[in-house]
């Protein structure tokens, strides 16, 4: 019974995604069974669509910058949360995590109001990055919290005791030992930013991100198989990135000689 | 002149008074222990010497120089941490040589120093091993070598043996003692294990609630405890209720005793009378009682057999609770059973009267 339930659940979860490659390689323009024949035409079309390339480049820049900023903020927040006691700590750390559960549409609308109405700025990649940092930082903080919790505070004290300064201790001891967490946080922030739609849709000006571009393509039925091809590539990339993040996390545990207490995935 | 002097040191954490007016001096080459139950402030005191905690008030001097405001990385101290704090991403040699990173030694000289430090702790040829692949005892030795390679004036040890099993702990106790004599560096050991402190130390400061209750060499600590708390913490002591007026003591189960001044601790009135297990003897047929001693009748309530000796819980007639008596198991001497009658010989000069306020 349980086995059947799990199978149905997994089918429900992944069958729609498995349809993407099926139609991406189908030569018919209508998304319906039976299939017509095998083609790589849709992928070839992707290769010559200039607007798509610009969207991909925009998305990659936004995702990379978001990942770096979120991870840096996550390191600071996690270190402060695990190592120090200060007034208002619980409230501060709680508020950092709130964007995890805040509806993105709310975040998007309120940011749009702030940016356009109140500050009078133009929408740009910068505004999307700022918003993506907001939603990625909680993830980065959660991952790095675990890294710092697994790090024996005596290790840093021992390095200071042996003559190192605070900054060289961070470089020689802390950083190498939390590096797997940093890599995992970078990869997850990157992935989240890359496929985020609502905020990007509201805050992108003349520089659409990839998800926004895909959405705009859906208005042309002729282009739907192209979207399918693009989706296929994105699914493969996402799975690849998440796998890398998990491998990196496990390697870190082995290196620190800590038992695996279950990870992000 | 003493190497370390700590004067009127207080430490507050908010409302919590962790160290209360600590005064002590530690001499060059001394093996000094801070002993007490958990939460007594011994680790806090050690960390103020190391520079990981600053004092709220008072003075800490090492070699005559004030350490107030001197960060841990500039103090002439090194520390062996309770968790050993071996850097898991480095080899044994990289761990041991870590403190030499900033020294002006050449690469070859550093390698020699690391080799010597490893040899000193009995880890010849372990340099290339990965740190996380070591056993508990080996990590302990790496931590020692890493701390001693800088030739500190003081080596601070924070419960260094508590994570080891009994056999390994006993071995490391004598090894630490040997190492300390060999290098001649002052060791300050924090421990909650009174036996460990007695075995290893030249002098011991016993701490309760952030205060030093007594600071003495081990024999004085054991035979002349400053108060009942210290007497209970060091070794085994059983207590019987009594009443003292001047030098006359009335003890339940033992009768009247005339005390000498050094048996009296604290005020008169209702007192607790402390007896060490080895100060009493069960009289077997092969023995004759010392004329100065007295004999009380009792019954064995419980016993613990250790092989070389047996600890008896004997209830003396008229006493509200049993006393602990230790007896060596000599050849031909029987081991008594529960419920057996026992004649207990006790020395009036060996008991201690602890007043209600001490």
UniProtKB/TrEMBL annotation, chain A:
<dbReference type="Pfam" id="PF00528">
    <property type="entry name" value="BPD_transp_1"/>
</dbReference>
<keyword id="KW-0472">Membrane</keyword>
<feature type="transmembrane region" description="Helical">
    <location>
        <begin position="125"/>
        <end position="144"/>
    </location>
</feature>
<dbReference type="InterPro" id="IPR051789">
    <property type="entry name" value="Bact_Polyamine_Transport"/>
</dbReference>
<feature type="transmembrane region" description="Helical">
    <location>
        <begin position="223"/>
        <end position="245"/>
    </location>
</feature>
<feature type="transmembrane region" description="Helical">
    <location>
        <begin position="90"/>
        <end position="119"/>
    </location>
</feature>
<keyword id="KW-1133">Transmembrane helix</keyword>
<protein>
    <submittedName>
        <fullName>Inner membrane ABC transporter permease protein YdcV</fullName>
    </submittedName>
</protein>
<feature type="transmembrane region" description="Helical">
    <location>
        <begin position="56"/>
        <end position="78"/>
    </location>
</feature>
<dbReference type="GO" id="GO:0055085">
    <property type="term" value="P:transmembrane transport"/>
</dbReference>
<feature type="domain" description="ABC transmembrane type-1">
    <location>
        <begin position="56"/>
        <end position="245"/>
    </location>
</feature>
<feature type="transmembrane region" description="Helical">
    <location>
        <begin position="175"/>
        <end position="203"/>
    </location>
</feature>
<dbReference type="InterPro" id="IPR000515">
    <property type="entry name" value="MetI-like"/>
</dbReference>
<keyword id="KW-0812">Transmembrane</keyword>
<dbReference type="GO" id="GO:0005886">
    <property type="term" value="C:plasma membrane"/>
</dbReference>
<comment type="similarity">
    <text>Belongs to the binding-protein-dependent transport system permease family. CysTW subfamily.</text>
</comment>
<keyword id="KW-1003">Cell membrane</keyword>
<dbReference type="InterPro" id="IPR035906">
    <property type="entry name" value="MetI-like_sf"/>
</dbReference>
<keyword id="KW-0813">Transport</keyword>
Automatic annotation (TrEMBL), chain B:
<keyword id="KW-0813">Transport</keyword>
<dbReference type="Pfam" id="PF00005">
    <property type="entry name" value="ABC_tran"/>
</dbReference>
<dbReference type="GO" id="GO:0016887">
    <property type="term" value="F:ATP hydrolysis activity"/>
</dbReference>
<dbReference type="InterPro" id="IPR003593">
    <property type="entry name" value="AAA+_ATPase"/>
</dbReference>
<dbReference type="InterPro" id="IPR050093">
    <property type="entry name" value="ABC_SmlMolc_Importer"/>
</dbReference>
<dbReference type="InterPro" id="IPR017871">
    <property type="entry name" value="ABC_transporter-like_CS"/>
</dbReference>
<feature type="domain" description="ABC transporter">
    <location>
        <begin position="4"/>
        <end position="234"/>
    </location>
</feature>
<dbReference type="GO" id="GO:0022857">
    <property type="term" value="F:transmembrane transporter activity"/>
</dbReference>
<dbReference type="InterPro" id="IPR003439">
    <property type="entry name" value="ABC_transporter-like_ATP-bd"/>
</dbReference>
<dbReference type="InterPro" id="IPR008995">
    <property type="entry name" value="Mo/tungstate-bd_C_term_dom"/>
</dbReference>
<keyword id="KW-0547">Nucleotide-binding</keyword>
<protein>
    <submittedName>
        <fullName>Spermidine/putrescine import ATP-binding protein PotA</fullName>
        <ecNumber>3.6.3.31</ecNumber>
    </submittedName>
</protein>
<keyword id="KW-0378">Hydrolase</keyword>
<keyword id="KW-0067">ATP-binding</keyword>
<dbReference type="GO" id="GO:0015847">
    <property type="term" value="P:putrescine transport"/>
</dbReference>
<dbReference type="InterPro" id="IPR027417">
    <property type="entry name" value="P-loop_NTPase"/>
</dbReference>
<dbReference type="Pfam" id="PF08402">
    <property type="entry name" value="TOBE_2"/>
</dbReference>
<dbReference type="GO" id="GO:0043190">
    <property type="term" value="C:ATP-binding cassette (ABC) transporter complex"/>
</dbReference>
<dbReference type="GO" id="GO:0005524">
    <property type="term" value="F:ATP binding"/>
</dbReference>
<dbReference type="InterPro" id="IPR013611">
    <property type="entry name" value="Transp-assoc_OB_typ2"/>
</dbReference>
């Amino acid at each position: 019974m349980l086995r059947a339930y799990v199978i149905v659940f997994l089918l429900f979860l992944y069958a729609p995604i498995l349809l993407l490659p099926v139609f991406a390689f189908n030569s018919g323009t209508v998304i319906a069974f039976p299939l017509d024949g095998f083609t790589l035409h849709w992928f070839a079309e992707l290769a010559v669509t200039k607007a798509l390339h610009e969207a991909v480049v925009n998305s990659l820049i936004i995702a990379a910058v978001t990942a770096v900023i979120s991870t840096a903020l996550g390191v600071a927040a996690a270190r402060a949360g695990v190592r120090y006691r200060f007034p208002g700590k619980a409230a501060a750390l709680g508020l950092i995590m709130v964007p995890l559960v805040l509806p993105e549409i709310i975040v998007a609308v309120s940011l749009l109001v702030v940016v356009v109405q109140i500050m009078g700025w133009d929408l740009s990649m910068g505004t999307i990055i700022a918003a993506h940092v907001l939603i990625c930082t909680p993830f980065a903080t959660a991952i790095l919290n675990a890294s710092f919790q697994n790090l024996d505070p005596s290790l840093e004290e021992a390095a200071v005791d042996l003559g190192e300064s605070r900054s060289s201790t961070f470089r020689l001891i802390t950083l190498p030992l939390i590096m797997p967490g940093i890599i995992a946080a970078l990869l997850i922030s990157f992935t989240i930013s890359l496929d985020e739609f609502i905020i990007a849709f509201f805050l992108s000006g003349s520089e659409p991100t990839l998800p926004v571009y895909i959405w705009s393509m859906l208005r042309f039925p002729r282009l739907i198989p192209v979207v399918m091809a693009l989706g296929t590539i994105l699914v493969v990339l996402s799975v690849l990135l998440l796998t890398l993040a998990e491998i990196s996390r496990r390697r870190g545990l082995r290196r620190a000689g800590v038992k695996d207490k279950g990870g992000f995935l | 002149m003493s190497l370390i002097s700590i004067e009127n040191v207080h430490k507050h954490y908010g409302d919590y008074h962790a160290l209360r007016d600590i005064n002590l001096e530690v001499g060059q080459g001394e093996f000094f222990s801070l002993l007490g139950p958990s939460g007594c402030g011994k680790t806090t005191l050690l960390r103020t010497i190391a520079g990981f905690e600053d004092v709220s008030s008072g003075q800490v001097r090492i070699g005559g120089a004030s350490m107030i405001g001197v960060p841990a990385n500039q103090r002439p101290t090194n520390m062996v941490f309770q968790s050993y704090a071996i850097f898991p991403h480095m080899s044994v040699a990289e761990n041991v040589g870590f403190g030499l990173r900033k020294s002006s030694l050449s690469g070859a000289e550093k390698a020699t120093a690391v080799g010597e430090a490893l040899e000193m702790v009995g880890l010849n040829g372990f340099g290339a091993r990965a740190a996380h692949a070591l056993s508990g005892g080996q990590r302990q030795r790496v931590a020692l070598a890493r701390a001693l390679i800088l030739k500190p004036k003081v080596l601070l040890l924070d419960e260094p043996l508590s994570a080891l099993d009994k056999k390994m702990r006993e071995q490391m106790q004598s090894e630490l003692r040997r190492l300390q004599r060999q290098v001649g560096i002052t060791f300050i050991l924090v421990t909650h294990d009174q036996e460990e402190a007695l075995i290893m130390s030249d002098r011991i400061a016993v701490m309760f609630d952030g205060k030093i209750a007594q600071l003495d060499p081990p024999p004085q600590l054991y035979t002349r405890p400053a108060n009942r708390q210290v007497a209970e913490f060091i070794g085994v002591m059983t207590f019987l209720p009594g009443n003292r007026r001047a030098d006359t003591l009335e003890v339940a189960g033992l009768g009247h005793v005339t005390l000498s001044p050094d048996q009296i601790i604290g005020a008169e009135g209702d007192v607790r009378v402390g007896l060490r297990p080895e100060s009493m003897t069960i009289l077997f047929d092969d023995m004759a009682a010392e004329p100065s001693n007295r004999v009380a009748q009792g019954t064995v309530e419980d016993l613990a057999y250790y092989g070389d000796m047996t600890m008896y819980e004997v209830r003396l007639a008229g006493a509200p609770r049993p006393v602990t008596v230790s007896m060596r198991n000599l050849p031909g001497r029987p081991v008594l059973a529960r419920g057996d009658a026992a004649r207990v010989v006790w020395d009036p000069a060996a008991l201690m009267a602890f007043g209600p306020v001490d």
